[in-house]
Amino acid sequence: MSALQDMANELVAEREIAESDLAGENLLEHDGSEPEREDRRAHAGGPFARLREMSIARKLRALSVANMAAIFLTMAATGVAGMIALDMRDARMAVSETQVAAAQLTKQIEKARLHSQRYAVTSDTGEWATARASLNATDGLVEDIRTTAETYAPEAVIEIDYLADQLEGYDRELQALQSSYARYGIGDRTQTMADAIYLSGASFAEQAEAISTELRERGLAMDARSASAIVWIFVMLGLVTLVVLALILFSSRYLTRDVSGTLVELTAVAEKLAGGDKNVSIPARGRKDEIGALASALNVFLRAAWRYEKLANEKAERAQRELEERAGLEREREDLRRQKEQALLELAQSFETTVGNVVGSVASAASQLQATAGSMASAADQSSSQSTRVAKSMEQASAGVTAAAAASDEFAMSIGEISRQAASSASLARKATEAAGDADETISALSASADQVGKIVELI
After folding, report:
1. What is the DSSP string of 286-349?
2. Residue finishing a domain among 255, 287, 312
3. CATH number assigned to the domain comprising residue 367
4. According to the model, what pLDDT value does residue 106 have?
5. Residue 11 has what pLDDT?
6. What is this structure's pTM?
7. Cα–Cα distance measured from residue 293 to residue 295, given in angstroms and rounded to the nearest whole number
């Protein structure tokens, strides 16, 4: 395992080397798969290219910020829509209230007409007071209608102001009616004035009704605009909601595909590598984030595994060659052993022959030495016999001079014979000495041969 780690560390140091430079090492040619397909999306253009170049943490932050912004946009859109709806409701309620005020204005004018006419007929001061109170009530109603019209129906302000001026004149007419009654009582003059007030009130009521109708139409128009605005608000809220949901769905799918999916693929590749399968294609090597770094690290281990396999194959080949060489050496050793056995056998046979020859020579020399010794013994016996005869001759010398001469001759002959025998003994002794030397040399040669045999045995 340390060898694999060493190779992995070495490959990490070589990560900046181009794969084309490593092709000569036959690492990428033996992976059993097509060349690694780079993640084209990581290098593609488009609005998401920058997102793909970010780290996972930055992607998560960016997507979280985008989702939060989308949620905030939804909330803001909902708030704006609510405010618009509230404004439209307030406007519609104000117009409706103004429309009610216009209707009440018409009612008060009609009431003032009615009670003024009754006052002219009955001279009941209560009727006049009721007519005057109804007319005074129109002042507040006209002011409320004018205030609302300034905001929501500015084109009706002129009519309202004109009606307000006429109502002031109507009030003066009521006061004149009271003065006429007080001065002239019930009569034609008072009745004529009451009829004029009644007709003027009808005109004022028509004007108030026209203002009410205009406000009602404005309210209906506002209702239509409000309905259309509400529809558009719901449409915009729906679109914003769809955008938010699409963004959330995109974030989820993007994270699932770009992060989780890629991690699942890398996990599967890592499991295959752990199982010994090197014919794999590592995805996402071109990415710039943590997943790209993880993919590059897996690629380093893949290349290390290929290099380890290559080294293992080379080691196996070397071991096979060593086994073959060792088998050859064993065969040569066996041949040498057989040759040595043959040489030893021949040496033993030669030794046996040599020893036999030496033994024969020694036996022959011993026989010759024995024969020589016998000859020497015989010569010694002869010498002893001759000495005995010389002694006898010396004894016989004293017997006579005559016999001395003969004895001298015989002694001379004996001396000569002794000399001859002595020379023969000396010759035999020399031969025996030479034979002993030959035997000594033969024994020395035999000893040397025995030493060689011992050395050969030690070598064996």
Report:
1. T-SSHHHHHHHHHHHHHHHHHHHHHHHHHHHHHHHHHHHHHHHHHHHHHHHHHHHHHHHHHHHH
2. 255
3. 1.10.287
4. 83
5. 46
6. 0.46
7. 5
